[in-house]
Amino acid sequence: MDLGLTGRVALVLAASKGLGRATATALAAEGADVAIGARDAATLEATAEAIRTQTGRRVLAVPVDVTNAEQSRAIVNATLREFGRLDVLVNNCGGPPFGAFDDFDDAAWQRAFELSLLSTVRMTRLALPHLPRDGHGRVINVISYSVETFVPGSILSTALRSGVVGMTRLLADELGPHGITVNNVAPGVILTDRVRQIGGEHLADTVPMRRMGRPDEFASVVAFLASERASYVSGATIPIDGGASRAIG
Ligand SMILES: NC(=O)c1ccc[n+]([C@@H]2O[C@H](COP(=O)([O-])OP(=O)(O)OC[C@H]3O[C@@H](n4cnc5c(N)ncnc54)[C@H](OP(=O)(O)O)[C@@H]3O)[C@@H](O)[C@H]2O)c1
Known about the structure:
Layout: E1 9-12, H1 18-29, E2 33-36, H2 41-55, E3 59-61, H3 69-83, E4 88-91, H4 106-127, E5 137-142, H5 155-175, E6 180-187, H6 193-197, H7 215-226, E7 237-240
Parallel strand pairs: 1-2, 1-4, 2-3, 4-5, 5-6, 6-7
Helix pairs in contact: 1-2, 1-7, 3-4, 4-5
């Protein structure tokens, strides 16, 4: 199936590692030019070079902290300067810490808000005026399967990402008439550095498929949503979790 992404331009945030990197790689492999952002410049540039070598596409690396408004504006502008257009925005960020309700004070909630919700709001606002209004504009938010199922300790992530789900519903309604789709992807347990850091490998046993997902399995779904082929999917939250969310209704 030709996804029709050749010649499109995608901006993928938090893309030096893990799910963001896999997403940028998949989009480039399908023929898109990509701009990628993350905080550590050296890791980011090494990732950009690896994607160029693997796919032969143009890859722009722009260091960005997605909680920083000025840097967020700068990466959108740099993408437009380099490629002259922007078709696909993939909002991604690092995950907030795990813990119990009692562990988090106002400052922790404020940080989580800026990372997991405000960054998505702001980046979308910055990108929207430039997305095509011919049916090809795409906003895709990386959230978590914790919006569908109980994940112990995920109180910051779940509270804020549920806000992204709500925002996506409303935004899909506003942007539908303009031919722009807005969707969420909700990863379950996908083997990345983050999962290794929180020692999450044992969770594989709780997944119906009895294994963790691979970043490329996650990225294939994002590439589909970014593509022409997903032109009638909007306002959705798509689990990519081997069946782990087990949501009914
Ligand atoms: N993997 C899973 O199974 C899973 C499950 C549910 C939800 N998620 C969510 O999916 C997202 C990606 O997870 P991952 O597993 O791919 O994590 P990862 O392997 O740790 O990669 C995180 C990426 O985000 C970048 N990043 C972190 N904070 C950033 C910031 N403030 N601004 C810009 N870039 C930032 C990191 O680079 P720098 O540190 O250099 O900035 C890195 O490129 C997270 O929000 C995570 O909570 C993942």
